[in-house]
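Researcher: Go.
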Amino acid sequence: MQFGGADSDIGRTVVPLPDGGLVAGGFFGSTITFGSTTLTSAGSDDAFITRLDASGDVVWAIGFGGTSSDLVADLAVDASGAITAVGFFGNSLTIGSTTLTSAGSRDGFVARFDANGNAQWALRFGGTAVDSALSVVPAANGDVIVGGFVDNAATFASSVSVPVGAGQGSRDLIVVRLTSAGGIVFLERLGGTGIDGFGGLDIGPSEEVFVGGNFASPTVAIGSSTLVNVGNIDLLLAKLGADGVPLWATSCGGAGADGLLDVTVDGAGGVYLFGEVEGAAVCGAGAVGTPQGGADLLVARVDGNGTVTWAQRHGGALDEAARQSARGPDGGLVLAGATDIAGSGTGDAFLVAVGPDGTLRWTGTMGGSGYDIAQGVAIDAEGYVFVTLRFEGGDLDPGTADLQVTTAGLSDVVVVTLTPDGSLAPIVRPRPPVAPAYTG
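Model: Structure:
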């Protein structure tokens, strides 16, 4: 499925639905058409959410924004079909009847919509600098866990101060649990004295929360754990209890700029982390493979007590970095990202599938001469893989076949469905409703 206008339009996230359809989100410039609905931007870029049925037809599409650049970074869908969107905005943002005003150059937002795309509530967080909401996962009771980052002093929902602990105060990670009505259950800030970034989060079977990111601070204290930076930027992974209290934290890295980009729980109390490492790096008790050139993919499993059970790296001569990950019904994983994203503005979208033990299953690339990125990935209960891309045109088939796609503008929103073995799947495939999707 392809949607676009004359400018840059980018799909950031996708969530499969039990009826075989999907919900996708991202942002667009000027105008974009979904089926019979044309959305028009109120400013530089506006956010969008669209729902498609199992045949790939548009059920509905909504856009929202203000005079600055606004986007949806991630989506979560609960058992009732309600959708929670997170992202960031500048100046002001109107969602339904609610207008949010940024306290600085950029604030994060959280908004809830019903299954038909009607806005129910929206709130913001941030301070006088740059703040963002980047990830959201649903809890079993309808709550959501939201992750992102804040710079310096900040407020959540305009009235609750984001706590600043000892040794914190620059850019830090933020984790908040919200009820279905937008009430705060817990709010936790993680970081040190330097600039530390958010990578991803997921919720475990006992409602524990795994959150990952990177830190440039010399040290970061999380609960009783103190992480020490061994290079430029290192990865961090922390486990919070169901009440938001930090339980432990661990780190990986080397002399280069390394970063954690997503985490996915394994269903057995542990978690997989995905990131990129430059040069030699250590994760847990051992070195992480042999550098392949540039930045390589890092895939590691950490058990429920914070011990790294294995770590692997995958890559080639170019830079590779995963943007998002998902776990399938058999425990296998799919990573979505791009090659050479630190290069000259050209690169291909890639997918890497590995087994629960990290064994490589299949790989695929999509793209042409431009800059193509696989931004979001999810897997449904039958193992079908859904990918949303920033696509500038070229071969959309990740396998050996050739499927040339031309974009309507600078880049288009493209959503691709793949079979469990990585082949292009038909848009329409007869099947009964399935259990909620596996996402990560």
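Model: The chain has a mean pLDDT of 88.
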